[in-house]
């Protein structure tokens, strides 16, 4: 294989590069914000459309579509050039946002969220690839750190912005605001980003990408089958499980023979890779998967408005930022990441155990402190799976290994959202005596709940608190499974930059 020198940056003018980088970060903020911004508006959406049992699908559909297409977009960019692949992704996302804003039913909204996800996945992948074309390696590292700040900012601002916009302009505004932003970004990239024709013709593992997406979707549908088909062991549910199993087995056979597999199977021979993937699945379930349900919990059991509930998320994100920054600094000094995986999942397990005991009259300050503890937990291990697999994988498979972590995190979130939705729907289905002034508890918006008499409001809060208790215990159990995997990790020390080449083979040997 001939070694080619690294290509020159795509744009030489520094000012133009910075403007392009601003457009890229705007697109990234829009795509990552969209899972967070919707969280505090969801109870209002459910109040308008009903179908609380499909509440989780508004988040799950977006994440599933996003994770299903992420492996493909990177290679499509290699094949057709980054510019037009990136612009196509932004266009799909913008059209999806417009359809969400004009949705006429819960099913329309879920379908539009799938369309949004198909674009969002492309935005997330293409941005890092375009950055690689714009900046030289040393300069790129600095700009990639700004990307991390944008990701954190979207987590902090999303719930507050979603709640405030929902209160002021109605929930549809949180989707429609993406349309002018998407159009501006598209115009900017069309005129300012040069097109570089790719020299390489990579072999794209379309079959592997499709099979892994179908397997994940089957698991999500199976976990949601009690709501979709009325029973976990209905004929349709058993059919979906069987279909998922066939897809998983076929995927293994396809990946063994693919020239450039989506996930090289030899990575699984390394126990560190397998354990970090499990930690990533559990991390996605308790971090990303829980966002929408925490927002629903705050608005139904404490009576907070969407914007006030969004403000509490600042505590969670503040904890996340503190945990992430301190962990990043200490890992870079010591080279050890295992202690942070253990500390992270311990914090989250304790937070959810405490949350399961919260009742309708619990002080807001106490709930805020628990959310901050959970945020610190998420932050401590946010970088661990990626750092760990990049160190454990051979140099040629680092990209695939990193993609596998992202995929497993999103897959874990999608599956957990369905499980959480089934638990809540089951809990609310056990409501005993009717509550005065409440025709259908599932169609209560936060504004309607605030207008109820005190006794009725308290009764609704008690019903929701009882429904959420088993959900938080489930999250605690998920965190404990992740903790068990973290404790089993080998105490690896990351090599220093001068030692990077030599330990690759040593890491592979240690894995055996």
TrEMBL record:
Protein localization: Cell membrane
Major localization class: membrane
Domain of life: Bacteria
Entry-linked PROSITE patterns: MFS
InterPro entries: MFS (IPR011701), MFS_dom (IPR020846), MFS_trans_sf (IPR036259)
GO cellular component: plasma membrane
MF terms (GO), sorted A to Z: transmembrane transporter activity
SUPFAM superfamilies: MFS general substrate transporter
CDD domains given in the database record: MFS_Azr1_MDR_like (cd17502)
Transmembrane region(s): 20-42, 54-73, 85-104, 110-134, 146-165, 171-192, 204-222, 228-254, 275-296, 308-328, 340-358, 364-389, 410-429, 463-486
Keywords carried by this UniProt record: Cell membrane, Membrane, Transmembrane, Transmembrane helix, Transport
Record domain Major facilitator superfamily (MFS) profile: where: 20-494
Membrane topology: Multi-pass membrane protein
This protein's name: EmrB/QacA subfamily drug resistance transporter
Organism: Rhizobium aethiopicum
